[in-house]
Automatic annotation (TrEMBL):
Lineage per the UniProt record: unclassified sequences, metagenomes, ecological metagenomes
A cellular component annotation (GO) from this entry: phosphopantothenoylcysteine decarboxylase complex
Native source organism of the sequence: freshwater metagenome
Start and end residues of each DNA/pantothenate metabolism flavoprotein C-terminal domain: 184-392
Coiled coil segments of this chain: none
Name listed for the protein in its UniProt record: Unannotated protein
Alphabetical list of PANTHER family matching this protein: HOMO-OLIGOMERIC FLAVIN CONTAINING CYS DECARBOXYLASE FAMILY, PHOSPHOPANTOTHENOYLCYSTEINE DECARBOXYLASE
GO biological process, alphabetically ordered: coenzyme A biosynthetic process; pantothenate catabolic process
Gene3D superfamilies for this protein: CoaB-like, Flavin prenyltransferase-like
Length: 398
């Protein structure tokens, strides 16, 4: 399944431009991150301030804006797909001719991505042989061009050329990009990263978890239409990985007890919990206000932290739970016992001996489930594992 998150919404200069405000919102509801690129003439109908307020992103219309970014190239590299809605007769003609006289037409030439064109214009303009020829040209080049709906337009005119309903546009778009939104309406809660338990203001007890796997699961769930909350402890994510969390409700914590507090609040509202965080098993019984001198640091008295997963599973009301077992061997019997003891539905077992997995973008291990499935995961990306785990969760969600 393709992972599509970044969508460019091109807006042409027709009265239907105002309807694209709803399209933008509905795309966001389905987990897409949208950058709006209006043509200069479209700003006569909907201004840049409106698009920026709705998208939360910078809006530019000309290649001469933000020249330092080489905006049409930077947007092309960032995007996964393009929707042009509405597409006027003039905009379709300019794209068919290969012109590049504003940011949107430059961008169309710069991308090699799925492009959905949504025409909207007066019936006579749509039926004109020139427009029909231009539409066929775009289709021959691999563009998907929707048929406009038949209905009332401006004034009393009725005919083909009406802007399609938002549902129809999104259905066509997701058919073009071959993405399933199989988690729509579901709430997914993910924990990630490694908790840290303070010894003094300088030192702590912690682990080597980077937070990459949990973040990958959160991003994948969002891409598949879920509403996602991520409880993130002390991660080592890159700038690009942090950016992928846009659209996710991220709660940042440090300690196991802080994580548990938020789990108790968020878990009852969720359909699926993915417990990928590496939680410290114990914490210092006392935390020094000042730095402990090296000579005085002879021993640390520890207090056991609560078993977050086991504790939270005891208050479940139908939720599916995915657990992780980072071991130094792939002992299936140990993993199955842990699956049962923790009250989880799915467990991913991996071998982290000799520094493997932690901090890497790759992983390998075995998925086991409470219904007896056992799936070997060869060396693969953490993004790919994220989708495998969500596939198994959907089976159990029915």
């Amino acid at each position: 399944m393709a992972r599509v998150r970044e969508v460019i919404l091109g807006v042409g200069g027709g009265i239907a431009a105002y309807k694209s405000c709803d399209l933008l919102r509905r795309l966001q509801d389905r987990g897409y991150l949208v950058t709006v690129v209006p043509t200069p003439s479209s700003l006569n109908f909907v201004g840049a301030a409106t698009w920026e307020a709705l998208s939360g992103r910078l809006v530019t219309t000309q290649v001469w804006e933000r020249v330092d970014e080489v905006r049409h190239i930077s947007l092309a590299k960032q995007a996964d797909s393009v929707i042009i809605a509405p597409a006027t007769a003039d905009l379709i003609a300019r794209i068919a001719a290969g012109r590049a006289d504003d940011l949107l037409t430059n961008l169309v030439l710069a991308v090699d991505l799925p492009i959905l064109v949504v025409p909207a214009m007066h019936p006579q303009m749509w039926l004109d042989p020139a427009t029909q020829s231009n539409v066929q040209t775009l289709r021959n080049r691999g563009f998907t061009v929707m048929e406009p709906e038949v209905g009332r337009l401006t004034g009393d005119d009725i005919g083909p050329g009406r802007f399609p309903e938002t549902d129809s546009i999104i259905e066509s778009f997701e058919r073009v990009i071959e993405v399933k939104k199989d988690l729509l309406g579901k709430k997914v809660l993910v924990t990630a990263g490694g908790t840290r338990e303070a010894i003094d203001p300088v030192r702590y007890i912690g682990n080597r978890s980077s937070g990459r796997q949990g973040s990958a699961v959160a991003s994948a769930a969002l891409s598949r239409g879920a509403e996602v909350t991520l409880i993130l402890a002390n991660s080592q994510l890159s700038e690009k990985e942090e950016k992928s969390l846009e659209g996710i409700n991220v709660i940042r914590v440090d300690t196991a007890l802080e994580m548990y507090t938020h789990l108790e609040i968020e878990f009852p509202k969720s359909d699926l919990l993915v417990m990928s965080a590496a939680v410290a098993d114990a914490r210092p019984s006392q935390v020094s206000d000042g730095k402990i001198k090296k000579g005085d640091l002879q021993s640390i008295e520890l207090t056991q932290n609560p078993d977050l997963l086991k504790s939270i599973a005891e208050i479940r009301s139908g939720q599916i739970i995915i657990a992780f077992a980072a071991e130094t061997s792939l002992d299936l019997e140990v993993a199955k016992a842990k699956l049962a003891a923790k009250g989880a539905n799915i467990l991913y077992l991996n071998d982290v001996s000799k520094g493997a997995i932690f901090g890497s973008t790759k992983t390998q291990g075995i998925i086991i489930t409470s219904n007896g499935a056992q799936i070997e995961v060869p060396n693969t990306s953490k993004d790919a594992l994220a989708d495998l785990l969500l596939d198994q969760a959907l089976i159990q969600l029915g």
